[in-house]
Design goal:
mainly beta; 60 strands; 7% helix; globular; WD repeat-containing protein PCN; WD repeat; WD40_repeat_dom_sf
């Protein structure tokens, strides 16, 4: 009987998401957090496949105010160049290969509230037809007569991909222009080229208030800016003069000089959309600045706006936690004279809202066909654009900014298990002590508990952030790296009575060259430190002798055995694993390519191109056979690789492409594996923040029956329904006695870490989400409970 020990006392303080942006090809979403870090997420049209591909640790003292992903020549590539503005007045580029934040515009001495890139010249939409048929909110009768509202909306969706023409071809193909909304009331325009720095172009005249929002017209000839004096201004970009201004307070709930225009959109149908501090979302005619419609469904500031690719749907998000959908609808204005064709008038109508967040929603972005939004509660949710009101949002990040952890068993300190927990600016080592154990099938509110005693804590400087860390299997050595250098420590002894340890700091030789960025994975094994360095875009796994601190070997990765080294633009390594016998090192890049190195011969042994086109989410070598590497991918597939034979293992050849459907619909992204610490065991526990699944490679893989589908699909539906389980989960539910392969166990609270303590016991580290919410600086959105 597998017994579960729970720890819920860890400090987990994720940071709020402050900005979002979608790549030029809509395949990735960038999310900037308040702590200066940036995450890159792979987009998936469903609940399966979302994957946090990269994390870049930026300047924690520079708060990001806006993100934009713009194309600019070969330097940006298919994704484009990812730029961010900061409250300190600077603009940075996020290098996805060097994993660095680089300033491309030094501080101008004035806060930048928002940046907007002009529409790229290869954006393909049928604008000519839309502009012709949607003029000043009216539609050409030949396009709309005899078509109902629902039919017209569906036809618009179907035509999104059929009609494609180039809407804008800028005269100067050398750079893309970037508009900056500045706190001094000006809009500054810069050019984004293949050069390292931005190029100054011009500044629009200063206005009375602070410029808080900015956007471009679809043809890039006009700029619309919103300010803190309650005005929207339309600017001629070429002549740099104001064409007209709109008094926003006329159609909203509030008026006066204290009205702030937080967000603007310029749609291809000739409509401007504004969101302001009164909670109003208003639609304006872009030719004359007249009001078309006004909606005031938000109960607080409207922080963000976003439009569907067809520009017939608009989403708004606010400080009340709501995301609201507005839809372009047609109404026929009839005439008593049958000779005249009824005229169709386009109106923006309120459709509905979804409230999934507990705090303010700060950002919105569209990644076809998904709407992506995030807020102060650190969560990221994905909505269906076309089925917004029919399907609940998908929580793609149930455990945001999960702290890296590592558990080592049977250490030299009286066989005491040690737990390493990596925080942003500190590294903690705990002794794990087991209390009275309760089996996971007990009806109590939780499983057996375990306690932790702090043995050692290492802090780095406040201006730095810990990127990666590791601890040796004996528990005597551990290491971490920040942005500047690696640091090595030795744990001399542990005082069991006082729960403290004696540390000594190791050092690397003075002539040892330090990399520009010391990357994410360190592995201590048999006295060697395997590390991954990045030198101007090249990744270079290195082996360092811990005792002498000498560099043993630096690998040169190749895509083929004996082939040439990788190009400078090769994606960075995000994961590394070593076999239990110390022979193999597996290095995996962010796209899922796997490099196998032989630590005995110090040569590359094998290259595996990305499996099923998906990224690798977790992996490890089995204790039973050090030549077998288990890999889990973001598409919920499991592979067993025979490293020595350079081929798929026998189990994968038979079962990988016929896994049970209940596993393919695994709730949440797989974030880790746990092997039983036994050379005779053939099973592994695969876990996500929401559930775990036992896979035994020695047992047959049965097809789904009705019970399996109920347990698998039903569990997924219940987990995804309004972000909560419809039924109460008493502790951890499992069937390890008389179990079948691919048995599931749902977690009650978000899980951060799972690892075997022994063959019959498991350590689970979780945290109730409400306790995490209580640590946030911002207060949750107040919701009135009926009857109180």
């Amino acid at each position: 009987m597998l017994k579960v020990h729970r720890i819920s006392s860890v400090e987990w303080n994720p940071s709020a998401v402050v900005a979002l942006a979608t790549s030029a090809d809509s395949s990735q979403v960038a999310a900037a957090r308040a702590d200066g870090s940036l995450e890159i997420w792979l987009v998936s049209p469903g609940s399966v496949g979302w994957h946090r591909q990269l994390t870049i640790h930026g300047d924690p003292n520079s708060r990001v105010s806006s993100l934009v992903w713009c194309r600019s020549g070969p330097r940006g590539g298919p994704l484009g160049r990812l730029l961010s503005s900061s409250i300190d007045g600077s603009v940075s580029e996020w290098d996805l290969f060097d994993l660095r934040q680089k300033k491309v515009l030094d501080s101008i001495g004035i806060s930048i509230w928002q940046i907007a890139a002009e529409p790229c010249n290869d954006l393909l939409v049928d604008v000519k037809q839309e502009i012709k048929s949607h003029e000043n909110g009216h539609a050409n009768p030949s396009f709309t007569s005899g078509v109902s509202e629902e039919e017209n909306s569906e036809s618009e969706d179907e035509d999104d991909d059929k009609n494609a023409v180039e809407i804008h071809d800028h005269n100067d193909a050398k750079h893309t222009r970037l508009a900056l909304a500045c706190d001094d009331g000006c809009v500054r325009i810069y050019g984004v080229s293949d050069a390292e720095k931005l190029t100054y172009i011009k500044t629009l005249p200063r206005v009375s208030g602070r410029t808080l929002s900015v956007t471009w017209s679809s043809d890039a000839t006009r700029i619309y800016s919103g300010s803190s004096d309650g005005f929207i201004r339309c600017w001629d970009v070429k002549l740099a003069h104001e064409i007209y201004r709109i008094t926003v307070g006329l159609g909203g709930l509030q008026s006066g000089s204290d009205l702030c225009i937080w967000s603007l959109l310029a749609l291809r149908c000739g409509t401007i959309v504004s969101g302001d501090s009164s909670g109003s979302v208003q639609f304006w005619d872009d030719k004359f600045g007249t009001l078309l419609q006004a909606h005031s469904y938000h109960k607080g500031d409207v922080n963000a706006l976003s439009a569907a690719p067809s520009h017939n749907r608009v989403f708004s998000a606010g400080s009340d936690g709501q995301v609201i959908l507005y839809k372009l609808s047609s109404e026929s204005v009839g005439s008593s004279d049958r000779k005249f064709v009824p005229e169709a008038i386009k109106k923006w109508i309120y459709v509905g809202y979804v409230r999934a967040h507990t705090h303010d929603v700060r950002a919105l972005t569209i990644a076809v066909p998904i709407s992506h939004e995030a807020g102060d509660d650190t969560k990221l949710f994905a909505y269906s654009v076309k089925e917004f009101t029919k399907f609940s949002p998908h929580d793609i990040c149930p455990a945001p900014q999960r702290m890296p952890m590592q558990l080592v068993l049977k250490t030299v300190f009286n066989q005491t298990p040690l737990l390493l927990i990596q925080a942003a600016h500190s590294l903690d080592i705990y002794c794990v002590r087991l209390k009275n154990t309760v089996s996971d099938t007990s009806p109590g509110p939780s499983g057996g508990l375990a306690s932790t005693d702090l043995v050692a804590r290492v802090k780095c400087k406040a201006s730095r952030k810990i990127i990666c860390s590791t601890i040796s299997s004996s528990g005597t050595s551990f290491a971490y790296s920040d942005h500047l250098k690696p640091n090595l420590f030795e744990l001399k002894k542990i005082n069991q009575a006082r729960a403290c340890g004696l540390l000594t700091k190791g050092s690397f030789p003075r002539n040892y060259r330090l990399p520009i960025t010391w990357f994410l994975a360190l592995i201590l094994h048999v006295g060697w430190l395997c590390r991954n360095d990045i030198w101007f875009g090249h990744f270079e796994p290195q082996v360092v002798d811990v005792g002498s601190a000498e560099l043993v070997h630096a690998f040169t990765p190749c895509r083929k055995d004996g082939g040439e080294s990788l190009p400078p633009s090769e994606p960075p390594i995000t994961k590394m694993f070593t076999s239990t016998d110390g022979q193999w090192l597996a290095a995996i890049n962010c796209f899922g390519d796997v490099y196998i190195f032989n630590l005995e011969t110090l040569r590359q042994h094998w290259f595996i191109s990305r499996l099923d086109g998906a990224s690798v989410t977790a992996g490890g070598f089995t204790p039973q056979n050090s030549n077998v590497l288990i890999i889990c991918t973001s598409s919920n597939q499991v592979y067993a690789l025979d490293v020595e034979a350079k081929q798929l293992g026998e189990w994968s050849m038979r079962h990988t492409f016929s896994l049970p459907r209940r596993y393919q619909e695994f709730p949440g992204e797989v974030i880790g594996l746990s092997f039983q610490p036994s050379s005779s065991s053939s099973s592994v526990i695969v876990y996500s923040p929401r559930a775990m699944c036992m896979i035994d490679f020695g047992m047959p893989v049965d097809r789904d029956d009705d019970t399996d589908l109920a347990n698998g699909q039903g569990l997924t539906r219940k987990l995804h329904s309004n972000g909560a389980l419809k039924r109460k989960l008493h502790g951890l539910e499992s069937k390890h006695n008389g179990r079948r392969n691919f048995d599931f166990c749902a977690f009650r609270d978000p899980v951060l870490f799972v690892e075997h303590l022994s063959k019959s016991s498991l350590l689970v580290i979780d945290k109730p989400w409400l306790q995490v919410v209580d640590t946030f600086d911002a207060q949750p959105v107040h919701r009135h409970i009926f009857g109180t």
